[in-house]
Amino acid sequence: MRIWGKELVKGILRRSANAPHVAAAAQYILSQRQAPQFPFYEVPEVAPIRPHASIGKHLRLNLFIPSINAADSFGGIATAVKIFEQLGSIVQGASDVRLRIITDKRLADESVVDLGKWRILDSTDADVRYQVLALENTQAQSIGFSRHDVLVATWWPTAFRAQRLRAWQERSFGPPVPPLIYIVQDFEPAFYPWSSRYAYAETTYLDGGNTIAIFNSMLLRRYFEKRGYSFRSAFHFEPRISSLLKTHLRSSARKERQILLYGRPSSPRNCFEAVCAGVREWAQTSKEAQKWSMVSVGEKHANIPLGNGLEIRSVGKLSVPAYAALLNECSVGISLMLSPHPSYPPLEMAHSGLLTITNSYEEKDLSSWHENIYSIERVTPEEVARGVERCVALFEEDNAVGQRGVSKVPWYLRDDEDEKCLHEVARMIGNRE
Q1: What angle do CA 327, 329, 331 make, to 5 degrees?
Q2: Which residues is 51 bridged to in the sheet?
Q3: For residue 377, what are the CA distances in angstroms to 67, 188, 296, 338, 354?
Q4: What b/e string do you get for 281-295 counting C-beta neighbours within 10 Å, with b at 16 or more?
Q5: Which of 84, 223, 272, 409 is the least crowded, having the fewest Cβ atoms under 10 Å away?
Q6: What pLDDT was estimated at residue 23?
């Protein structure tokens, strides 16, 4: 480097004491070391999808979900796939339609979709009836969309991206383009502290004029209505037990002194800390505790000592048959959910004959859904411990009490069939100019 060049850089350094990035760049020029790394802040879940115009003439429904891997899937993804396939089946009855699932992960293990029916393809515009497009890097490959593509989202990052894709459709092809179909399964801004993610999640509810919202339960729909969110059209369906799980449940199975916990430490709304604190207090104060064992299902974590020789044994995420086997043998269940969504685990537990402890939340009180559900008003260790002691005492008095519990929501055990609201949604997206 010439002398006058170094002097120029040194002059920049003297004048950039309060501009660290400029100073770092100047230091690099002097030292000829590796270029400085400047911070780049982003929310990776909402990285935009790169579209290109497609000449496809068929109506095509596109479901955006994070993954089709069974290991990544809990109730939300499975429900979205079920609703999507039901909607596609209804639309197919009236027109020639294609279905495409777009995910952010490649298939790595067992899938939540039937791979005998769905084809995993690389081509984004393949003219097949059931296609899965798995892109780990949505910026590396563009995806074809036409004016006939209907976008279906669930979980806020997929809706955030789909709303921008729909705006691109309108700019590229002109109106009208189909409304976004949004399968809303929780109030998802509450998954985060007040933050960029909170703001982004809430914005997916604010573009309601272009959105058909399908809510997972009337409880959740009312929660949104009370807060002033409105949509082009709004529908709801009620949760139902998985047909596969139902086939593995045994109403006459012998119940053991075993407590089943829904353990998902990475999901704050499931209040796992409060669950652990509550059962620890119960284990250390109850005269019955030594007779009982505890098992945690949902997400693998280290076994948790409770004192007095007791522990919570973690088995993680299980296959449906293995989960059903636990439901058949356990007699008490605990599943908390700080959310307006009803949540699947407490309903599965109660309808499988477990005396089930959960919590109420605003208008949600699942004790009105099943006789086996004991709903605590406050999420505290003391309330959880009292709930456990109550359920254990009932079982000790009569070990068949949970199996005689009666459901107050007969639709929950109904055999799988198309949700009635989807016929109206199908009419709205099928009857377009």
Answers
A1: 80
A2: 143
A3: 35, 22, 23, 11, 20
A4: bbbeebeebeebebb
A5: 409
A6: 57
Q: How far apart are CA 178 and CA 240, in angstroms?
A: 29
All residues at 6 or more sequence positions from 339 whose CB lies less than 8 Å from its CB, including other chains? 186, 187, 190, 269, 361
Asked whether residue 51 is assigned to any structural domain, the reply reads no
Q: Determine contact, residues 158/201, Cβ cutoff 8 Å.
A: no
Q: What is the pTM of this model?
A: 0.87
Same-domain pairing of 129 and 18: no
CA angle 118, 120, 124 (to 5 degrees): 110
We report the CATH number of the domain holding residue 372 as 3.40.50.2000
Contact (CB, 8 A) for 101 and 131 = yes
Report pLDDT digits (tens) over 94-151.
678 899 999 887 776 777 777 888 888 876 667 788 999 887 766 667 899 999 999 9
Q: Are residues 131 and 119 in the same domain?
A: yes
Number of domains within the chain: 3
The encoded tokens of residue 238 equal 């009620």
CATH code at 213?
A: 3.40.50.11090
Please provide residue 349's backbone torsions phi and psi, each rounded to the nearest 5 degrees: -65, -50
What's the rounded Cα separation, in Å, for the pair 241 and 416?
9
3-state secondary structure of 219: helix
Which tokens is 222 given?
């009312």
The Cα–Cα gap between 400 and 355 comes to 10
On average, the pLDDT of the chain sits at 88
- How far apart CA 89 and CA 95 sit, in angstroms, is 10
Looking at this protein, which amino acid is placed at residue 143?
A: I
CB 385 within 8 A of CB 279: yes
Range of the domain at 79: 56-240+417-430
Task: Give the model's pLDDT for residue 119.
Answer: 86
